[in-house]
Design a protein that fits this description.
Length: 453
Amino acid sequence: MESFAHYDLLTGLPHRLAFQDQFDLILSSPGFHAALLYIDLDGFRLINDLRGNGIGNKILAAMAGRLAQACLDPLMTVSRLGSDEFAVVLPGFDARSATIFARHLQDRLKAPILVAQERIVMTASIGVALAPEHGLQGDKLLARAGIALAAAKARGKGQLCLFAPNMEQRLHERAMIEARLRFVLESQDGFFVFYQPIMAFGREEPVAREALARWFHREAGWIPPSRFIEIAEQSGLIAALSDLMISKACKDATNWTDGACLAVNISASLLGRGYLPDRIARALLESGLPAARLELEITETALLDDNERVLEELRTIQKMGVSIALDDFGTGYSSLSHLRAFPFQKIKIDGSFVRDAALNPNCAAIVHAIADLGKRLGVATVAEGVETLEQLEFVRSQGCQQVQGNFYSAPLPSEEDLPRIRALSNYDVSRGTLAASDRPDDFEPWHEPSSRP
């Protein structure tokens, strides 16, 4: 009964409740200094799901044993917080010594484990918080070490991160943005779709316009897409955001007198889930937009996991008459196998190559290679991020057929939304710009108002 009350039966380590009681007692000592390590095994859930709980339990027991062996000092405390999470308290350690010891633990934990005649290598991410610098209450320190752990895992596997106050500030800001975003998606108050034209050489009117989500908050001004789209992805709101985008953009496109196509970005997380074909069919039916005027832009990250399900879904959408474009080609995950596996109608060259082409011969060579590849495959190539006449002439000389960027036009709202946007913010329609105080790049975190917006 004593063992059950205080210790984890699988690993023999103190469990979370026993750890918290002991940690609070340690922290109550006058002048106490310590480092708290919050440890999480990378990818353990996947291994546990694929190989079963039996293998998973053996891995956890092995990892717990390694931690215990590495922390033989009687003043050190090692606990299992739950699942694949562990805590280590290092009395008297400062930031430097805690970092060195944490690296030592990571090295020990990543040594291969022999389980069921199979060598398994695990890595661990670690968040570090210090007492008294980051707090003197056990739950507060554990929470802040957890924040540092989340920051470490965001950088990849086997990473280490020391808590800093701005991490907590960013976390609060993220929570506020998520709460506001939920309200916006329900009310549509402050949500807009702007459109940036895609031009073809030899034509005066756009061949397409890319739909771009924009959000105006009455206290914060224009919130950058780079902030709220990432939060939508992480919080599971991306499907609702995409619903709203596709629906509104299709309706707006029916009013374009030039007959330009509508290009809509699709999150990689939505592909392969069986959600997209029905949603697109419904948006086309409700708006009356012909399928041939709709283009979906996807990045290559969508093709990395569960490849066949994603490709099958894209084929279904393509059979509806909708075009599929490969966006941001040339960055991160580019593979010619993706072009072989699926007949994309368009390749979009990432704007970073276009911007750096004048100074970086490698970037210029990449633009040329992608444009030549598109020509040989019979696929249109679009150069993104074109802002100057020099860049325009360069991508033309390399064989790109289409161009997108501020050289022709910044993203603009629909005529229907323009009066509302003028009323909300200082928007100059002649230039397609916002007042300096309303620019997304100048956005600063806001304080939560007392009343609901």
